[in-house]
Amino acid sequence: MKIKQLTVFGSFFLCLFxxxxxxxAEPDAAAEMARKAQDPLGDVKAIMTDNTIxxxxxxxxxxxxxxxxxxVYAIENDSSFNMLARAIIPVVxxxxxxxxxxxxxxxxSEDGDKWGLSDIMLQYFFSxxxxxxxxxxxxxxxxxxxRTSDRQAGAGWGGGVAGVxxxxxxxxxxxxxxxxxxxxxxxxxxxxxxIVYYNFESIxxxxxxxxxxxSYNWTADSSDxxxxxxxxxxxxxxxxxxxxxxxxxxxxxxxxxxPDAGPEWQFKFGISYFFN
Length: 276
Known about the structure:
mainly beta
């Protein structure tokens, strides 16, 4: 049922924008923009979003919402390293007893409104400048206690380290983003986000792949530590005027491993704007 839903959504999505893409850009330029959008170490300035709706979580099969705004800024410099700054600003809507691994490692508190701002994460990557092949980056990250109530609690004040590896083979974009983070209240979370995209030649800027995070909560009970989503994302990158770009994506994921209070499956969508 979930694969059928993804197929219907994906077919609608791919058919929605062909006229816009053909009018807005040449195929090679649109394909190049799609590759830059998939590259976590790309030389881009963007406002990205990563949005998740989780179904079947908590003791009453509640629906949980996790929306992330991610400003990304590549810093121009004359050193031998590329420098990239990224912020993750999470807005969540979640009922008591539900776990959202991307926002926090524990079930939600009874206190506070359902909707609010969670704890902001800041990342900074250093990557050796390279013209071809696979590249890598590493850097520090910090979390800020910006939650509007305990129900939206994330890592609180904390820090960690993040790393990236990325490259391309033919029409494939491959890599991973990973971080280990420590925060307040025994927060200790490992997150790995694989990067697997296949870029279609027949539909300019269109792709299919995996876009989700696998997380491991070191301090939870042994049966609740791993969150493993399996599914697919389908999307398209459009080149707009003046070299700007717009990336749109949707996906569906079954949580084959999850904490007892975690959602059973997720619907994901992204809307990202890339500046020239």
